[in-house]
Amino acid sequence: MDQPAKIGRYNIAAEIGRGAMGVVYRAVDPMLERTVAVKTINMALDPGEIEHYEKRFTIEARAAGGLNHPNIVTIHDIGRSGDLAYMAMEFLEGRELKDLIANGELTVDRALDIAAQAADGLAYAHQHEVVHRDIKPANIMILGDGRVKIMDFGIARMRTADVRTQTGVVLGSPRYLSPEQVLGKRSDGRADIFSLGVILYEMIAGQPPFNGVDVNSLMFQIVNFTPPPPSSVNTRLPPMLDLIITKALAKSADERYAGITEFAADLRACRQQGLGTTMPTLIAVTQPVSAESQKMLFDDTQPASRAEDRSLTLSNNSLPGDTIPSRGLAKEFDSMAATMRLAAKTGVITDPDAFAANFGVSRHSIDAAIMDAGDESERNWGAHTVMRAPPWSTRDRQIFLGSVGGALVLGMLIVFI
User: Fold this and answer.
1) Domains of the chain (ranges, CATH numbers)
2) Which of 112, 291, 303, 312 keeps 20 to 30 A from 157, CA to CA?
3) Beta bridge partners of 88
4) If you average pLDDT over residues 6-11, what whole number do you get?
């Protein structure tokens, strides 16, 4: 189709993007004398679906048009011009995040900043009862001054929306979908948390956490596969970041961050502690976590925002010596039980006896965390990591051998007497 000279009141300057249902143009608004982006959908391409696409297009405009936030693209106008439905929006001069990832241009610190800004924009949308549901690198624009802009609320769900997604229908980019979206269940803002977690993993590890050979295998991985911690790919990443990723990528929405603002707070805590300043160093195979890296997990470093929270907490079933200081994470995540469980799941606890001795926690609490993680892995039968039973300590072996020896002596006495 030839490029139109005008759409609505907008003078078309050039085509800047093209999709299956329409084209995006750079245009000029003569009334306000400003450059805008005009997104179109050709309503004549599929006559049988015109009503569906027009309603979906209207939902996108209503969803994004009601949001006014520095990290969300601004919608100026919506209308119809012949067979074209169009939306005029803020013209962004920058690069899509997908290009920065593909070219390996991101430091870990920059990745944390991008994810935190995106989380801020999504938090604002969630406060206004809008869930994006299609967060992916192609929908995140990085401007020349470093600002992040979220685009394309095309499949956003609003409580007042006229068009609802049918149960079992999957919408969104498969690689970044949450498990509940893959399974066709109703999703809320925690689906956006999962999608942003997938993007963060890809930015800091240099590879996506889920990468099936086709759509079906990819969706199977999302629902059943626990990806390796990103520090196993980029050895300079701190264990704290492994735990944040694990929290964001939990299969159950109830086990993720309760709100995306807490996700953003933890990402900024990493930056404040100087944990995100390293450059990515990729390796081909998973390497064990060093004792020094293990100790970083429990170093008592706190961001200013949590400086007042210095009390030591004992879990209900922990033993004396199991006190662990605040880590600067979201409160429901920053607990003895959660930290130990996630440490077991992410492979930080490689030698339970050494771990207990080095960090002043009881072997009982470590075994409980490992068994807890193991039970979860057995329930998640397709998981990548299945926890094994913890090895016996020296004391356990001594007690066992002593008991066996005593039983043998007693048996011999009974036989000969």
Assistant:
1) 6-91 (3.30.200.20), 93-287 (1.10.510.10), 289-303+325-417 (no CATH)
2) 112
3) 38, 77
4) 94
